[in-house]
Amino acid sequence: MVSIQSRPEPELLRDGIKVPVKETLLTPRFYTTDYDAVAKMDVSSQQAELEAVVEELRTDYNRYHYKRDDEFLQSWEHIDGETRATFIDFLERSCTSEFSGFLLFKELSRQLSDRSPLLAEAFNLMARDEARHAGFLNKAMKDFHLSLDLVNMTKKRSYTFFKPEWVIYSVYLSEKIGYWRYILVHYHLQKHPENQFYPLFKYFESWCQDENRHGDFFKVLLRSQPALWGTWKAKLWARFFLLTVFATHTITVFERADFYKSIGLDAREYNKQVVINTNNTAISAFPAVLDTSHPEFFPRLEKCVDYNFKLMAIDNSDRPQWIKKLQKIPLFIAIFWQLLLVYLLKPIDAESQRGKVR
């Protein structure tokens, strides 16, 4: 497998303020949607479930969770080299992702306040959680003498339009895969506390429950819309978003292999467990899911990892831009081909699986 080169020193906007990571298909993005269409959604078929989920959000189990204790009050200069670089990268991407969720949820709450009060409240409560997560992660970055100018990012970063149904599919998966990412690290560090090199990891168990509750809300929203689970098109879209999320996760985990190694995790096995568990969880919401047990599933995703490293090597070369673009074309085609072959693997009919104990 092609290895990633050492990361360069962080580029600064000004003293202590990091230049945000360059926007690519793999980095967290900021989203906007058709707010009117969301306001017109009929959620009455899932009214009881929706009210129960919103009540969970109101309870605010983690109100006092995001408090930095005395363990943070020390120098972290002993965390250096690739461990420091990959950990800062993890903190930045996670912070950007949480802040992206905050912006989307806050705007949905504002736009829906007069037309769909219950949904508006739910989005406002989730925005509260995402803001806490982003702020906590940004404070962690400051322990390494860096931080993100989140206010400036709202003005400078581009926004991607997603139709409401795409938002529901993708945010449901983002929250559920986030749950499994955090909880599996938590379980691992419970068994191997010697690998817990920074106190942020102690917060993962309660943190991931926020992700889980947010996913539960989007599951109810999805199941309230028959067009998102009851048609053949819905099955195709569900598989598409699963594949997109799993491919992105696989590539980014292998990019950060040094970070996972620093906490005693094997990147390949960790990725497999996150993907398998997320796919199994999606059976309760999606009309169809992917067959992660197929012998071609993970090998083809990992081929995309190799192609991605080759793309990165081209980017880091000193060749002219036009040559770089030409060199990338066959690699993009190769990634597309591998993903298409995974997509065409026989899926699992989630509707027939729903209700079984997993």
TrEMBL record:
UniProt KW Cell membrane keyword: no
Cofactors named for this entry: Fe cation
Domain Rubrerythrin diiron-binding: start-end pairs: 89-221
Keywords for this protein: Chlorophyll biosynthesis, Iron, Metal-binding, NADP, Oxidoreductase, Photosynthesis
Reaction equations catalysed: Mg-protoporphyrin IX 13-monomethyl ester + 3 NADPH + 3 O2 + 2 H(+) = 3,8-divinyl protochlorophyllide a + 3 NADP(+) + 5 H2O
This enzyme's EC code(s): 1.14.13.81
Domain of life: Bacteria
HAMAP family: AcsF
Entry's family note: Belongs to the AcsF family.
PANTHER family found in the cross-reference section: MAGNESIUM-PROTOPORPHYRIN IX MONOMETHYL ESTER [OXIDATIVE] CYCLASE, CHLOROPLASTIC (PTHR31053)
Name of this protein: Magnesium-protoporphyrin IX monomethyl ester [oxidative] cyclase
Organism of derivation: Pseudanabaena catenata USMAC16
